[in-house]
Design brief:
The complex is a heterodimer of chains A (196) and B (387).
Chain A (H helix, E strand, L loop, with lengths): L8 E4 L3 H13 L5 E4 L5 H8 L3 E5 L5 H13 L4 E3 L6 H10 L1 E6 L4 H49 L3 H15 L3 H14 L2
Parallel strand pairs in A: 1-2, 1-3
Antiparallel strand pairs in A: 3-5, 4-5
Helix pairs in contact in A: 1-5, 4-5, 5-6, 5-7, 6-7
Chain B lengths: L4 E5 L6 H8 L2 H4 L4 E5 L3 H9 L5 E5 H9 L8 E10 L1 E5 L1 H10 L7 H17 L6 E4 L5 H11 L10 E4 L2 H9 L5 E5 L2 H7 L4 E5 H4 L4 E8 H6 L1 H19 L4 H9 L8 H9 L1 E3 L6 E3 L4 E2 L10 H13 L7 H8 L4 H8 L24 H6 L9
Helix pairs in contact in B: 1-12, 4-16, 5-6, 8-9, 12-17, 13-14, 15-16
Classes of the chains: A alpha/beta (196), B alpha/beta (387).
């Protein structure tokens, strides 16, 4: 794909990590003209300056409404802009909205060219969401471990147990109460703080 | 118990009936399990409703019409069986613009025609001096905020597309934008006007109800095919919203309502500020001047909950006036069919047609007649009809 033929793609995303993941994917796929706009101040001026064929925006960005206004104006100056691939392709639209990405496409760009871009964005957005989920899980596991350590300490001190015995007690209580071990640990900490 | 419903909303006071219906248990009492999803933009609410990620939504009334007409986006017919709010907006201006307007004003400063004429003078002066045109923020191209601002300005000959700049701003960005001089004024719903006043960076120039005494603001929107398939669920939803609106309108429940709405996962602002919008008693200047209007925001009162197709016709007329679409009898019919008093009546077990159409109480222009939208629009000097 030559540089002349590559459509201009603007990525509007406040998350630098996700934007980088997107940009990298698009470049790997041969789209050479990719611009990332992070700053929401004067978003419109920046977009006008780039004059893109496609705008990819994170759904959680309130500035989506600002973009919609731009398209209204654009229509007035005879530069119609369609959203998503086309109206009939509701599966693509749904996949894209579920992934949290929205794409605005200038009319006139061929459907065959748009589909791979949108698909790529959707899969990258999903990959990013998974990454973030994993990060969250690791964080909460770490947090859990800290709480369990603290609860064990309390049990050892109050009940004169060894570390292993304290852990066994926590675990068996959790099983009996059908709760997570972290929750039992937290309630021990809360109780001990109230009894202080 | 039916399948759980997912309903989208934007954190604004006029989502009150929906939020109270869920959080106070009116929806559950109707056998509905509802998950309310807070959204950041009207585009999101519209898209998620249109593709079925939401079953229902708190939506700008003009967006429901635009969506049904396929304006600016995918065409999905919407049904609005309940009106979530009548009025509720205000026009707020920066202290500098307020001072300039007050210097030019001839007449009552609460009279929109007087302030619009003052605006025309300020605009002309700035033009002469080679200053940048004034910039006003509103929330969405298809919004009552857009139309109210335009209606107000144009009444004194200010062309909103030529003489000033109108820009879309997400409601949470309004206050920052007036603070950093990005806009000189804005039209938005509660609580954002009050927040600007409290921060000392805005004066509430007009309540939306000064411009139009009775204007449909937000609707409870569902996809038409969805409504056709399960009239019972729609009826339950409407009844829950009606009960919530009745609860909200009782003075004794004011504090509790404000508390419910103030929750961080709902509107997430001070309960006291929400109370002001609900009672229509607003601080309008940083110095503490207060203005009160029983018409500031109607949730259920004066038949506010019952959708009125004439309101939809008026909104459609605004779209034509400002060049968003061309005038067509077919489109007018489609627009009016979005507002569904029949579904409202059916839900409450009432015979339809008992209620007279509401009047708009516009401060300028002739009375609106949906049978002659062309004639109505022809009477305005300023407009951008797409023909």
């Amino acid at each position: 794909m030559s540089a002349e033929q590559s459509p201009k793609i603007v990525i509007v995303d406040e998350s630098p990590v996700r934007a980088a993941i997107l940009e990298e994917g698009l470049r790997e796929a041969g789209f050479t003209q990719v611009v990332h706009i992070r700053e929401m101040q004067s978003l419109l001026a920046r977009i006008y300056a780039v004059d893109p064929d496609i705008i990819v925006i994170d759904l959680e960005n309130p500035s989506r409404d600002v973009l919609e206004a731009m398209f209204q104006v654009s229509r007035a100056v005879k530069r119609p802009i369609a959203m998503f691939v086309d109206q009939s392709d509701s599966a693509s639209i749904q996949a894209s909205v579920e992934a949290g990405v929205s794409a605005y496409i200038v009319d006139g760009l061929k459907k065959e060219r748009i589909k791979p871009i949108l698909d790529l964005c959707v899969s990258r957005f999903n990959a990013f969401a998974k990454l973030q989920e994993e990060l969250e899980r690791t964080k909460s596991q770490l947090e859990d471990r800290k709480i369990i350590e603290k609860a064990k300490g309390i049990l050892m001190k109050v009940k004169g147990l060894s570390e292993d015995e304290a852990y066994v007690l926590l675990r068996s209580t959790a099983m009996r109460e059908k709760k997570k071990i972290g929750e039992i640990a937290q309630s021990i900490i809360t109780a001990s703080e109230m009894l202080k | 118990m039916t399948a759980p419903l997912r309903i989208g909303f934007i954190p604004l006071v006029d989502a009150a009936a929906l939020i109270v219906a869920v959080d106070k248990g009116f929806a559950a009492a109707e056998g509905l399990e509802v998950e309310l999803v807070r959204e950041v933009s009207w585009s999101n609410v519209r898209d998620k409703l249109n593709i079925g990620l939401f079953d229902a939504a708190h939506l700008l009334a003009p967006v429901a019409i635009a969506s049904s007409l396929g304006l600016g986006h995918v065409k999905v017919p919407i049904a609005a069986p309940f009106n979530l709010g009548i009025n509720g907006n205000a026009i707020t201006v920066a202290p500098a613009l307020h001072a300039a307007l007050m210097e030019e004003i001839d007449g009552d400063r609460f009279d929109p025609l007087a302030t619009a004429k003052a605006l025309a003078k300020v605009v002309a002066k700035r033009h002469k001096a080679g200053a940048d045109p004034l910039t006003f923020g509103m929330t969405f191209p298809f919004s009552t905020h857009n139309y109210q601002l335009r209606f107000w300005m144009a009444a004194a000959g200010v062309d909103p597309d030529e003489d000033v700049r109108l820009v879309v701003l997400p409601p949470p960005y309004m206050v920052d934008s007036i603070k950093n001089g990005h806009v000189d004024g804005f039209c938005v719903g509660a609580p954002w006007n009050s927040i600007a006043v409290d921060l000392g960076i805005g004066h509430i120039l007009h309540f939306g109800s000064d411009i139009l005494a009775h204007a449909a603001e937000k609707v409870l929107a569902v996809r038409k095919v969805w409504a056709d398939k399960q009239p019972d669920v729609v009826a339950s939803l409407v009844r829950a919203a009606v009960k919530a609106a009745e609860f909200i309108e009782q003075a004794a429940n004011l504090a509790e309502t404000a508390q419910i709405l103030a929750q961080p996962e709902r509107i997430g602002v001070d309960a006291e500020m929400i109370q002001r919008s609900l009672t229509g008693r607003l601080k309008i200047s940083p110095e503490g001047a207060v203005r009160e209007s029983g018409r500031y925001l109607l949730v259920g009162r004066e038949g506010a909950g019952r959708p009125d197709p004439v309101q939809a016709a008026w909104l459609y007329a605004q779209m034509v006036r400002w060049g968003q679409t061309a005038l067509s009898g077919e489109a007018l019919k489609t627009a009016m069919a979005v507002f569904r008093p029949d579904l409202y009546d059916a839900a409450l077990g009432r015979e339809g047609g008992g209620q007279a159409a509401t009047t708009f109480g516009a401060f300028a222009g002739p009375a609106f007649d949906p049978r002659d939208v062309g004639g109505y629009l022809a009477s305005f000097e300023v407009g951008r009809r797409a023909l």
